[in-house]
Write a structure and sequence with these properties.
By secondary structure, this protein is of the alpha/beta class. About 20% of the residues lie in helices and about 30% in strands. It is built from three helices and nine strands. A six-stranded mixed beta sheet has the order 4-3-2-5-6-7, sandwiched between helices. Helix 1 crosses helix 2. The chain is globular, with a radius of gyration of 17 Å. The structure holds inosinic acid and magnesium ion (MG). Inosinic acid binds next to strand 5, helix 3 and strand 8.
Length: about 190
C-alpha cells in the first residue's frame, strides 16, 4: 500500500480498543473528579495539539467549574514510529500561567518524553500548581517517570488510533479507539 494512502475506515483499521460509551463514561468521571479537586480555584487547562483535540473537547464539557483553555504546539524530531527524538516548542501559550493552577492534558503517554518536556516547560513559569491528566497511559516503554494525577485508562503496548489519535494524520475523527498496526516496512 502507498504510504500516503491509509486504509479506508471504518472496517479495515483494526479491532476495537475502546468503544465510544466506555470512553465517554471515563471522561465523565475524570471531569467530575477534576471539578471537585479544583473547585474555587483559578484553573487553566492546557493541551498539546493536535492529538488531544477530541479528548480535550469532551473533558472540558465534563468539567463543571469555570476554567480557561490554552494550547501548545510541539514538534518531535527523531525516527518515525518512535518518539525518542528531541521535543521542541513550536507554538506557545497565549495565557499566563504564573500563580495559576495548571492542568496539562495529554492524549497518550508512552515513553514520557513529551509529557516530561511540557511539564518542565510549564513548571519554569511558576504556576501555583501543575498536574497532568492523560487519557491513555502506556507504561511499557516509559523512559522518564512522570507523575500523573489523572489517568483515563492504563493500556498495553498496542499502537492505537481514533478519538484524536492519528496514524500519519488520519483517523483522528473516529469517535472510538481502534488498534492499528502500521506496516513497518514503510519506514
Ligand atoms: P511519548 O513522548 O513517547 O510519551 O509519546 C507521546 C506522543 O506520541 C503522543 O502525544 C502521541 O502523539 C504519540 N503516540 C504515542 N502512542 C500513540 C498511539 O498509540 N497512537 C497515536 N499516537 C501515539
Ligand atoms: Mg501523533
Amino acid at each position: 500500500m502507498d504510504s500516503s494512502t491509509p486504509a479506508p475506515w471504518p472496517g479495515d483499521i483494526g479491532p476495537l480498543f475502546l468503544g465510544e460509551e466506555q470512553i465517554q463514561a471515563r471522561v465523565a468521571e475524570l471531569g467530575a473528579q477534576i471539578s471537585r479537586d479544583y473547585a474555587g480555584e483559578d484553573l487553566i487547562v492546557i493541551g498539546v495539539l493536535k492529538g488531544v483535540l477530541v479528548f480535550m473537547a469532551d473533558l472540558l464539557r465534563a468539567i463543571t467549574i469555570p476554567v480557561t483553555v490554552d494550547f501548545l504546539g510541539i514538534s518531535r524530531y527523531g525516527p518515525s514510529q518512535q518518539t525518542h527524538g528531541v521535543v521542541r516548542l513550536t507554538n506557545d501559550l497565549n495565557e499566563t500561567v504564573a500563580g495559576r493552577h495548571v492542568l496539562f492534558v495529554e492524549d497518550v503517554i508512552d515513553t514520557g518524553l513529551t509529557t516530561n518536556f511540557i511539564m518542565r516547560t510549564l513548571r519554569l513559569r511558576q504556576p501555583e500548581s501543575l498536574e497532568a491528566c492523560v487519557l491513555l497511559n502506556r507504561t511499557r516503554r516509559r523512559i522518564i517517570d512522570v507523575n500523573l494525577a489523572y489517568v483515563g485508562f492504563d493500556v498495553p503496548d498496542d499502537f492505537v488510533v481514533g478519538y484524536g489519535l492519528d496514524y500519519r494524520e488520519h483517523y483522528r475523527n473516529l469517535p472510538y479507539i481502534v488498534k492499528f498496526e502500521p506496516d513497518q516496512s514503510e519506514d
